[in-house]
Design a protein that fits this description.
It is built from 13 helices and 7 strands. With 367 residues, the protein is mostly helical. It has one domain: Glycosyltransferase, CATH 1.50.10. The strands form 3 sheets. Strands 3-4-5 form a 3-stranded antiparallel β-sheet, covered by helices on one side. A two-stranded antiparallel ribbon has the order 1-2.
């Protein structure tokens, strides 16, 4: 256990040093993915869904170190995103405000901060389609993405903060629709469902980032594990815990202990079946969450799997500490294969969820 603590501590310190260097090198710049190891470049971002993760990393460092300087930096970078609370065109506001503003509120209990979270949740709820009972994605009015499971907790927070039963019921309905249409009986998940927005009829499965229309895009599967676990925490509804466990069990059936997943589980063996460390980081964090929500022996199984995965990620193969001038934390992340964005690079969400998992694990081994 002491060796694990040292490895996790070294990983935390390295992540903090990389974040500090980014702040000093490019003040007020919020990164998304690297190109040849550099955060700032002219590459496309596809959609602006990642801006909460860098402030979120700063919050994680501030919480763990109790440093007033880190907290001041976290508040500053979070304020840069405040205007996005009224964006009614995006499905990704949860990634932004759950990462950047919810830690701020939990620390301060400031009602003004909660108002920002609630406003963002109401903006996200504007994407709700009553016929299909889902929150549409930015792709189109007919698009239900598994990614939105990571964002729907924002609507729950808005509903709980304001006592708005309509918002709460819409969030529940979205989760139930996603579980019914996008989570198959074995726990595997295609990324997207196409739903007739006028009738609510399910038409077909599809994908934006996966290998094939019905394949299991690894990051999407880990979004499902994490998202359904978070929704269970907010609702205590056992149906959502069951879905999270089903997805987790599928994930574990497809990976050996400590193995970082391929970017899509259906990619044939060969040069295209490369790993995605960001999906591994999300999985590690999600499994640690799930371990707190379920009973043994599942709880021990999830925690053991998460620690084994972190052990792998904390090695020279995946940490950028041995790569001169590399600006991210985790190597071998994947953003969008088909658009050739951030392939075998660092991603800010991979770094964020890795740091989140490391700080959770450190609390476990230090208690």
């Amino acid at each position: 256990m002491s060796d694990l603590r040292l490895r996790l501590g070294r990983a935390f310190d390295f992540a903090a040093s990389q974040v500090k260097a980014t702040i000093e090198r490019t003040p007020d710049y919020i990164p998304s993915y690297t190109r040849e190891g550099r955060w700032k470049h002219g590459g496309d971002v596809w959609t602006d869904w990642t801006s909460g993760f860098f402030p979120g990393m700063i919050w994680r460092i501030a919480e763990h170190t109790k440093s007033p300087d880190w907290r001041a930096s976290a508040e500053h970078y979070s304020r840069l995103l405040q205007r996005k609370q009224h964006d009614r065109s995006a499905h990704d506001l949860g990634f932004i405000f759950l990462s950047a503003y919810l830690p701020w509120y939990r620390l301060t209990q400031d009602p003004a901060i909660l108002d920002v979270v609630a406003n963002a949740g109401r903006s996200l709820a504007a994407q709700y389609n009553a016929k299909g009972k889902f929150l549409r994605s930015h792709v189109g009015a007919d698009s239900l993405l598994i990614d939105v499971m990571m964002n729907v907790p924002l609507v729950f927070h808005a509903a709980i903060a304001s006592g708005d039963q309509v918002l709460y019921d819409q969030a529940i309905a979205h989760c139930e629709t996603t579980a019914k249409i996008l989570v198959r009986p074995g726990g595997d998940t295609p990324q997207e469902a196409i739903i007739d927005p006028n009738t609510g009829a399910f038409l077909r499965h599809s994908t934006q980032q996966g290998y094939a229309q019905t394949s299991v895009w690894a990051r999407g599967l880990t979004w499902a594990i994490s998202g359904f676990a978070s929704v269970y925490t907010l609702t205590s509804d056992p149906q959502f815990l069951e879905v999270a466990e089903r997805c987790a069990n599928f994930y574990l059936s497809q990976t050996a202990p400590g193995e970082v997943p391929p970017w899509d589980f259906n990619v044939p063996q060969g040069p295209e079946r490369f790993v995605d460390s960001s999906a591994g980081a999300i999985a590690a964090s999600a499994l640690l969450n799930l371990a707190e929500l379920t009973d043994d022996p599942q709880s021990s199984r999830y925690r053991t799997a998460a620690i084994a995965l972190l052990d792998t990620l904390c090695t020279d193969q995946y940490m950028a500490w041995s790569t001169p001038d590399w600006e991210g934390v985790l190597l071998h992340g994947v953003y969008h294969v088909h658009k050739k964005l951030g392939v075998d690079e660092s991603t800010i969400w991979g770094d964020y969820y890795f740091l989140e998992a490391v700080t959770k694990a450190l609390r476990t081994v230090e208690s």
